UniProtKB/TrEMBL annotation:
Entry superkingdom: Bacteria
Protein name: Bifunctional diguanylate cyclase/phosphodiesterase
UniProt-listed CDD domains: EAL, GGDEF
Keyword annotations from UniProtKB, A to Z: Membrane, Transmembrane, Transmembrane helix
Taxonomic placement: Bacteria, Pseudomonadati, Pseudomonadota, Alphaproteobacteria, Hyphomicrobiales
């Protein structure tokens, strides 16, 4: 019995071993089959994915080719100068100089054609810099495209066409002004074409990773292809290229290792599962930490910009109580960093962050967007003014850091999160309001208003108009007489800029700061200096004064440009006085000193303008060696307004006299003011009493009358 039991036990063990072996064999076979299926599927999918990518790349290459030529056409067709010139008698010459000649070696197009308003006459047609016949080269399709593209405001009409050389891309658009005023006449049409040649194909091949890309009349067996159609939808050619078949390539390379990989997979499956589970937990923890770091500021622990935008995206917007976004910018934070160092500045950021988090129960999130800019999200019924007052009250008392008393203020911009506003737009609106709050002064809170955007648009339009006005000479120079205090004779003229537009005059107080902000002040200054000197050459013996912006004087090239202009116009430097305000002495004194010294060496004089309304010191007057001082008109007008106005004025003139600096008084409007200034020692007078700003023609007439 025991043997039977032992036999049954052995058989049982054997059966168990066999069953286990068969089970693992079946599992191995199943795994092998599955892996083989997966490898085959991956190989096939990789080939299909790469083929699909290549097809998309081919279509993208065609689209990029079309887009480049379309953009080039718009840049040249929507052009005020082109619109005016093509309508002039010299249209053909102008078109050749700007387009026809360029086509010889220009990479963006091979030919340029201008068709007249009658849609049949060719004004100009050049291919590779040589005249050609578009109707012969393109056929009837050319005029059909021109007629389609002839309307104002229409985007370029772009089509592939069959040519006598092969296939070309042609783009057509009406030659038109940037903005139409009234109804326009029939427009001429500009067309650019680019041959779809091997050079273009090579460029597209490199840009879009399409090795072997070429043009064929029909699809090629075994090759991928994309059709090219003309304006009627007819196929006129195909882009063809070989498939890379990356899946098959990789499969052939890794095939010898697949069997070994199966064995290794079986042996290490258990260990991999254990290690994988442990690694998954670790990666999950790292991922959570990375997500936190990606959405939070490392210094303050607050949300960063990315985290704020994500929060606003997920925030539920209610019409009854829409969330509000407040941007807070610290006033005076840079001074803290400069005075106490970045360590104190960082501690101040942390203190402000903690204060903002707890400032109001309806503030659901606080973010730090930059160095000293914060954002708060409010959800609740509290009024905007309550939140803003609460925020501003945080800065009413100074912060204490390591025994130091730190005072900073805050400016606030607010915007409401309406249902249709995306987070980036909400952030932009709040930023616009914050910018206005900082412009209005410290400690202000401004709510976004659409007028802010309209004002920004008006400023942008005014910048464009200013650029055009400088270029076409619309900004004119007028001249105000400078009169001797003793003889009453005109001894010099000050040039002043005037901008007259169809809608009225634009004040220099508007367009000069605008020119400084948008980088046009150098061009405006050069225009005014050149125009003024050209007129002053007709008035020998008179000095010419021209105002110079601090931005100009801080330009290292300014002195050389002025000297070059004087040499070009053959104008005596000793007749020229450049008037500058004291602001330049504070913003960049070193560069200002270099420019002044360089110009004084050739005989140009310098006058300190608007003295008495700022912070110019006696030391600055001595250091920069001014040849003249101009008293600000506010001191002159104080003669009629303040009881001590005359004493202040006399003391100012006495200061200049002690420094041996001649004095000019501006803004003189009555005889009493002139008498007091003359008695105080002022040697030159300027103002409406002596003469208003006049055109060059009026100045010439006045000088002739004085001579008579």
């Amino acid at each position: 019995m025991s043997s039977n039991l032992a036999g049954r036990h052995v058989r049982t063990q054997t059966s168990s071993i066999i069953a286990t072996t068969v089970f693992f064999l079946v599992v191995a076979l199943v795994l092998t089959g599955l892996m083989a299926h997966v490898v085959a599927a991956m190989t096939r999918s990789a080939n299909e994915i790469d083929d699909a990518r290549a097809s998309r790349a081919a279509r993208a290459s065609i689209a990029a080719f079309v887009s480049r030529l379309s953009a080039t056409t718009t840049d040249n067709a929507v052009w005020d100068d082109a619109y005016k010139s093509i309508a002039s008698p010299g249209a053909a010459d102008w078109a050749y100089e700007n387009w026809g000649k360029t086509s010889e070696d220009y990479p963006l197009y091979d030919g340029a054609i201008v068709v007249g308003p009658d849609r049949s006459s060719i004004v100009s047609a050049y291919a590779k810099g040589k005249p050609f016949q578009p109707s012969v080269f393109f056929g009837d399709a050319f005029y059909h495209q021109v007629n389609t593209a002839a309307d104002f405001g229409q985007t370029p009409v772009v089509n592939f066409v069959k040519t006598e050389k092969g296939i070309a891309l042609i783009a057509s658009q009406a030659i038109q002004p940037y903005e139409a005023e009234g109804e326009l006449p029939k427009l001429s049409v500009l067309s650019f074409y680019k041959e779809f040649n091997s050079e273009v194909l090579g460029t597209l091949s490199n840009e879009h990773e399409l090795a072997g890309l070429r043009l064929a009349a029909a699809p090629q067996p075994g090759l991928l292809n994309t059709p090219i159609t003309d304006m009627r939808g007819r196929v006129i050619g195909h882009l063809v290229w070989p498939s890379k078949a990356p899946g098959s390539t990789v499969f052939r390379q890794v095939y010898p290792y697949i069997a070994a990989a199966i064995v290794i997979l079986v042996l290490f499956l258990a260990g991999v599962l254990l290690v994988g589970a442990s690694e998954a937990r670790r990666l999950r923890q790292l991922a959570q930490a990375a997500i936190f770091e990606a959405n939070h500021d490392s210094l303050s622990g607050l949300l960063n910009r990315h985290g704020l935008l994500a929060l606003l995206e997920e925030l539920e917007v209610s019409d009854y109580c829409p969330p509000r976004l407040y941007l807070v910018d610290l006033d005076g934070f840079k001074a803290v960093n400069d005075a106490w160092g970045h360590a104190v500045g960082d501690e101040l950021i942390r203190l402000v962050s903690n204060a903002l988090i707890a400032c109001h129960p309806e503030v659901v999130a606080v973010a730090r967007l930059g160095g000293d800019e914060f954002a708060l999200v409010q959800v609740g019924t509290a009024a905007r003014g309550d939140i803003e007052e609460t925020i501003l009250s945080l800065f009413a008392e100074p912060f204490k850091i390591d025994g130091r008393t730190i005072e900073v203020g805050a400016s606030i911009g607010a915007a409401t999160h309406d249902r249709d506003i995306p987070p980036l737009e909400l952030l932009r609106r709040a930023d616009m309001a914050l910018y206005r709050a900082k412009e209005n002064g410290r400690g202000r809170a401004i709510e976004y208003d659409p007028e802010l955007d309209r004002e920004r648009q008006r400023i942008a339009e005014l910048e464009s108009l200013l650029k055009s006005a400088i270029g076409n000479g619309t900004i004119e120079a007028v001249f105000q007489p400078l009169v001797s205090a003793t003889t009453g004779a005109v001894t010099g003229l000050e040039a002043l800029a005037r901008w007259r537009t169809a809608t009225g005059n634009v004040s220099p107080e508007i367009f000069i700061p605008l020119a400084e902000r948008c980088g046009l002040i150098d061009a405006l200054g050069s225009h005014m200096l050149k125009t003024s000197i050209e007129h002053a050459k007709n008035w020998p013996g008179l000095a010419l004064s021209v105002n110079v912006s601090p931005v100009q004087l801080c330009n290292p090239e300014f002195a050389a440009e002025v000297i070059s202009l004087l040499q070009e116009l053959d104008f005596d430097p000793s007749r020229l006085t450049l008037e500058i305000t004291e602001g330049v002495l504070m913003t960049n004194p070193d560069q200002a000193r270099r420019s002044i010294d360089h110009l004084k060496q050739v005989g140009i004089k310098f006058a300190l303008d608007d003295f008495g309304c700022g912070y110019a010191s006696i030391g600055a007057l001595r250091q920069f060696g001014f040849d003249r001082m101009k008293i600000d008109r506010s001191l002159v007008s104080a003669l009629d307004q303040a009881s001590n106005g005359a004493d202040v004025l006399k003391a100012t003139i006495a200061l200049a006299t002690a420094l041996q600096i001649p004095v000019t008084a501006e803004g003189i409007e009555n005889i009493r003011q002139a008498a007091i200034l003359r008695e105080a020692g002022c040697d030159q007078l300027q103002g409406y009493l002596m003469g208003k700003p006049m055109s060059a023609l009026d100045i010439s007439s006045k000088l002739q009358e004085q001579a008579a």
